[in-house]
Specification:
single chain; about 150 residues; alpha+beta; 8 strands
C-alpha cells in the first residue's frame, strides 16, 4: 500500500518471467522485474483507446526486457523543465518519465533491489506528452513532500 495524495492506493503486483529457451546460467544473469501498477495508472489506462493500449503494452514489454538485460533501461529520462522539491536532489530520485507512445508519457519509479537481484518498476501515471512535465512535477511533490 502506498499513500498517494491523501488516499491509500492498493498496488497490483505482477512478477514477470520471460523464458526464451536459455540456459539456467543465463537466466540467473538476468534480473527479475516486478511491475507495480497504481490505481492512478490503471484509471489513466482505461481512458486510452484499444490501439493506444496495444502500443503502451508493447512499449512496456520492451522496457521490461531492457530492464532485465541491461545495466540501465533505455528510454528513461527526466525533462530539463522538471523541478524537484528542495528536500530531494534530482540525482537521488528514482522518479522518471518513459515515452510509451507517440502521444503518451508514463511516469514511473525505477528501483534496484540487489538482495533479490530484481528491479522494481512502479507505474504511477500515463499522461499526454503536453501535460507530462506538469504532472511529473505534481507527482514529485506528492512523493517527496514529507522528506
Amino acid at each position: 500500500m502506498t499513500d498517494f495524495n491523501g488516499k491509500t492506493v492498493t498496488l497490483r503486483h505482477i512478477q514477470i518471467f520471460i523464458c526464451k529457451n536459455i540456459s539456467e546460467t543465463e537466466m540467473r544473469k538476468k534480473r527479475n522485474v516486478v511491475i507495480e501498477i497504481t490505481r492512478g495508472f490503471d484509471n489513466d489506462e482505461k481512458q486510452l483507446s484499444l490501439s493506444e493500449r496495444r502500443g503502451l503494452d508493447k512499449s512496456l514489454n520492451e522496457l521490461v526486457e531492457s530492464a532485465r538485460e541491461q545495466s540501465w533501461p533505455r528510454k528513461l529520462y527526466r525533462s530539463h523543465r522538471v523541478v524537484f522539491p528542495a528536500t530531494v536532489a534530482q540525482k537521488d530520485s528514482t522518479l522518471y518519465m518513459f515515452k510509451a507512445t507517440r502521444f503518451h508519457i508514463v511516469i514511473l519509479t525505477f528501483d534496484e533491489d540487489p538482495i533479490f537481484n530484481q528491479r522494481i518498476i512502479q507505474l504511477l501515471r500515463i499522461v499526454s506528452i503536453r501535460d507530462s512535465v506538469e504532472v511529473f512535477n505534481a507527482v514529485a511533490n506528492l512523493l517527496y513532500r514529507n522528506i
